[in-house]
Amino acid sequence: MADPQSNAPLRADAGAPTSGVIHVRTRLTADFTVISNALAQRRGSAVTVGVAAYISSLPDGSPVSIAALCEHFSEGEILISRALRELETAGYLERRRERTPTGQVRTRTYFYDVPGGAPDPDAPPEPPRPRRPRRHAVAAAVPPAPAPAEEKAPAPGPAGARTPLPLADTVADVDVDPRAIAVLAALRRTDPRLIVSAPEAARLAPAVTRWLAAGLLPTQITDHLTARLPDRFLSRPAGLLAYRLQETPLPLPTRSAEPPVRPAVVPMQNCDGCDRAFRTAEPGRCRDCRTRDQLRATG
To answer: Is this structure's pTM higher than 0.70?
Structure first.
């Protein structure tokens, strides 16, 4: 007996899906970025995924500070800083503090396609992109102002070497009061918008130190800096804090080392006539007894 056969198709044509997304694919040959599905489909904040995709699309050397990201996105500093912390916790982003040959300290940001992954040695290097002219080039014709006394000039390099330009996130090796840094870092507890970076805190610390030297408590400085803040900041919070720290309060008046001179207390004496107590420097008769003696003498 012959084996049974069926002319039915092995799999019915499902056609287009009746619900959900339908992809219209286009093969891209330039201006595209490859990210993993684990990052693109990451559960949680959409701001975090958007910030990660934007950082992945940037060339090496692009600024990714909170201020630079706020200029690109419509979200504020709180959401942007929260997204960077989530990416750093997940292992996609790493921030390292490194020292340059000139002795300065700067923060470098490393972004990984895979959390904690090493760079692919077979990946072709990304071609360099033309950079926009910096503002330093426009001001090159103007003679530079003399450097402050506390700043250290960079050591001269070999002939023909290019001197690196100062970065916005570079902190000079200057002595700052740790109490002032603690006051500035604690401002975000009162208002989460008052987030200052390390270079901004180093610039504001001398003014806070003068306020502390004038006798003000850290709580009093915090109340002064956080009172009656506007609903929306038109600039960085450091600018507002610098404006409020312009005036230096008067120091407390110093107390005299010598104690005040008190008047001498006249001792008590008993009257020789009526034995009544009265104050006098030498023993004798009271006023009433002396008056009676004068009346008797005249009478």
So the answer is: no
